[in-house]
Amino acid sequence: MKNPQRGWSKLLGVLVLSVALIGTGPDQVALAVPGDRIAEVVTIEGIGPTWPRGISVSVGFDGQYLYYTEYGGSTLHRVDVPPAGAPTQATGQVDVPITGAPSGIMSIAYDAGRNVFWAVTSDMLSIYTITKDGAATLRFTVDPAVDRPGYTATIEEVKLAYDRSDDTIWYAPDATSRVYHYGTAPDALGTAQLVTATPFVDVNVAPNDVAAQCGYNQTSGVAVGGSHLFFGVAGCPYFFEYTKTGVKVAWYPISEPSPGDFECDDVSYAVDVVWMKSTWEGRIQAYEVPAGSCVFGGGPAGP
Q1: pTM of whole model > 0.85?
Q2: What architecture does CATH give domain 4-290?
């Protein structure tokens, strides 16, 4: 049974946050609703596409700090969570070298049960776990001929989300319309195993396509922290909520034109948010999502 005092505290916090957002900028409104930008932190890389540190698609959240890596980088960057409201400069910067992943890390997703990050490297096929002190361990590889059915495009990056409800990985090749679903344990050959019941989710099948809002079908970011998935779409003014069987539930406005990866957070603010890393700039933004839909660390533990 939920603690009623905690529920009333969170409700009060929502009201306080809603009042605090009044007048903080043209993209904020008096009453916070899903899709509102709640916070933004500008990292040391700053505004503008400065290679290599200014190009990054990854974001992670461990319940206390935000993390990111460079594009195929070998450093795990950590910063403090910013206050709600207007953009602020990052504080508490800590940089940890990543060891054991020679091809560099592309994107990360935090696993609260194991207290590690799941990661995919710049070869797009190697899945690692990374501890907070930077030690990377190869868990399995993706066989492109077997483990990505229906895949035809050439990709430059992959985004990940860890799903704690069934201990699985959602694997999203950039600018394609299919997101694959793998178990965290490899098969006998050390390669990925598609989840039999839900091996993938498509975003190009009407009426559950994103083209209805974006004009084209693709994904460029994925997060999970409950019963639904959240997808970003590069160049589209919305991000999307889907069931794990491919039903489009809702879509919410987003002010970032080039969203990278997403990560859930239900503890930093009075409302639940999904963190989004700007691909081309050193900015990490938090957008409100429905209450209870985006629990950090992969969501509640399954059976």
Answers
A1: yes
A2: 6 Propeller (2.120)
